[in-house]
Amino acid sequence: MTAGVASLAVRDLLRGIRRHGKVLAALPHAIYLEFADTVPEPRVIAVSPPDAIRLPNAIITGPWDAPPLAGNAECWAGGSRVLACGLDVRIVRWWDPSPVFGPLSRARLDHGSGVLARLYAAAEHAPGLAGQDGPGQLAACCASGDLAGAVEAAEHLVGLGPGLVPSGDSVVSGVLLALRLLGGAISGGTRAVWLANWLSAAVTCDATQRTTTLAASLLHCAAKGQAAAEVSAVLLGMAGQEPLEPAASRLLTAPQGVDLAWGLVAGCRAALLLSVS
Predict the structure, then answer these.
(1) pTM (2 decimals)?
(2) Is 277:188 a contact under the CB 8 Å cutoff?
(3) Residues 31/46, Cβ–Cβ less than 8 Å
(4) Alpha-carbon Rg of the chain, whole angstroms?
């Protein structure tokens, strides 16, 4: 048995009755477990070693000496334990995936979004949807307060791109997090939160039919203001509460990190434009 530190986003699932699930994927950096009968979301849990990205639905365990065994496609969770792929993880502590902000300066956020934009523009990896119009349309509609246009653009991005977490989902998640968390902390940010509420409802209502089960769970987390630890660090950096450049460098090297950063900048700029100074 090994000890684990779990996100509060999955506390109800982990502390509840023992549930049977299935292994979605067993990779060197994470095991993804699905519990389809669990309501509400997230229905997917990521079990990861300390050096992996800490997703908002993650359990972090000790270092892995070898990749987990994927032969058994069944898993169990409940009673503060998870059994999967040869691992028996007991939850000993919890971490909060929702960063907390006090009142934020508009000038600070404007500066932070500019710094992050420059860093992702110079990143080694290009955005997954580079050359496509969808992300720009979402950003423009959010900035102008065009609800119908923003909903249409966000719904178009859900499930767009390859992989367990398509790039379009990461862009949308970044926008939702910035609108809700940063917009909600600046003076007059009510419209940004209002927009985040509508977009969240639109992209989560049928997410499991439009994208992967992991991406759907991450969209539900973003809709609630729950972020990966690396994304939270960037948000805190944009707010001037932590150093931004080291946090951005960590995020931009993570899978889908550039897409998330793009969404954070777009959401932050929209929040500033929608707010009343």
Answers:
(1) 0.94
(2) yes
(3) yes
(4) 18
Q: How confident is the model at residue 138 (pLDDT cuts 50, 70, 90)?
A: very high
Tell how far CA 28 is from the center of its chain.
20
- DSSP code of 84? E
End-to-end CA separation in angstroms for the chain: 54
Tell me whether residue 118 is exposed, middle or buried, using C-beta atoms within 10 angstroms of its C-beta: 0 to 12, 13 to 18, 19 or more. Answer: exposed
pLDDT band for position 276 (50/70/90)? confident
Kindly tell me if the per-residue pLDDT of 144 is higher than 70.
yes
Torsion of CA 219, 220, 222, 223, to 10 degrees: 120
- Rounded to the nearest 10 degrees, the angle between the axes of helix 257-274 and helix 167-177 is 40
Asked if residues 266 and 178 have their Cβ atoms less than 8 Å apart, the reply is yes
Q: Using DSSP, state whether 103 is helix, strand or coil.
A: coil
Mean pLDDT of 39-47: 89
Do 46 and 55 contact (CB within 8 A), yes or no?
yes
Q: How far apart are CA 44 and CA 35, in angstroms?
A: 6
Angle between helices 167-177 and 213-223 (to 10 degrees): 10
Q: Are strands 87-95 and 44-48 parallel, antiparallel or unpaired?
A: unpaired
Residue recorded with tokens 């309501």: 39
pLDDT digits (tens, 9 = 90+) for 151-176: 999 999 999 998 899 999 999 999 99
Is residue 193 within 8 A of residue 180, CB to CB? The reply is: yes
Neighbours of 29 (CB within 10 A): 14
